[in-house]
TrEMBL record:
CDD domains in the cross-refs: AAG (cd00540)
GO molecular function, one term: alkylbase DNA N-glycosylase activity
Entries under InterPro entries matching the protein: Formyl_transferase-like_C_sf, MPG, MPG_sf
Full protein name: Putative 3-methyladenine DNA glycosylase
Gene Ontology biological process terms from the UniProt entry: base-excision repair
Residues passing through the membrane, by range: none
One matching Pfam family: Pur_DNA_glyco
Family affiliation: Belongs to the DNA glycosylase MPG family.
Keywords annotated in UniProt: DNA damage, DNA repair, Hydrolase
EC code(s) of this entry: 3.2.2.-
Amino acid sequence: MKLSSAYYLNQDAVGVAKDLLGKVLFTKIDGEISAGIIVETEAYFGINDKASHAYGGRRTNRTETMYSQGGVAYVYLCYGMHHLFNVVTSVKDEPHAVLIRAIEPLVGKDLMEQRRKMPATKSAISSGPGSAARALGIDRKFNTKDLTGEEIWIEDHQIRYREDEIAACPRVGIAYAQEHALLPWRFFVRGNKYVSKPNKL
DNA sequence: TGGACGATGACCT
DNA sequence: GGTCATCGTCCAC
């Protein structure tokens, strides 16, 4: 049920990004559990990906997390106010990661409503990477945490989507990545209301 | 050591 | 469609 450490050693972050759709992301904070179905992801593919923080092999205090062996959380602050959560994949020193861009609330909806100060019926509660992380209570303290531990983990609930239910399109907010901005490394579940905009092809 | 800049979202018209 | 909040990170000085 809980994804094992072996799952995260996969060296194909694009494949993992697609495979994570339908998996369930859990957090347990102060004994309280919340979880959501992953419905939107983006792959950041190693040192040759211009959109990645690790492009060109850049190694800094922040990016060091991405160079860890797969199976840890990479969380960083974006625009001074949003915590973005990534799943680190692949082997040590290969900085691949998958950004979780949206979840569908599944467990602990009341907790999410408190954190987001809006009803769980409203799609904005967990739509977009900043909102999804906040709904689950993920902040910078989760950076480098083990994804097979007791605070944050991912489960396989046998939710499977057909090929035609999954869309692949260019990633969001990375215009600076030039030609790499067009790579279809964003995946989402078609028609799911929690998918962030733009949610059409 | 300072200043530009985000893998965004909320609220406005 | 437009504006702007807000701060850690990175690199040029």
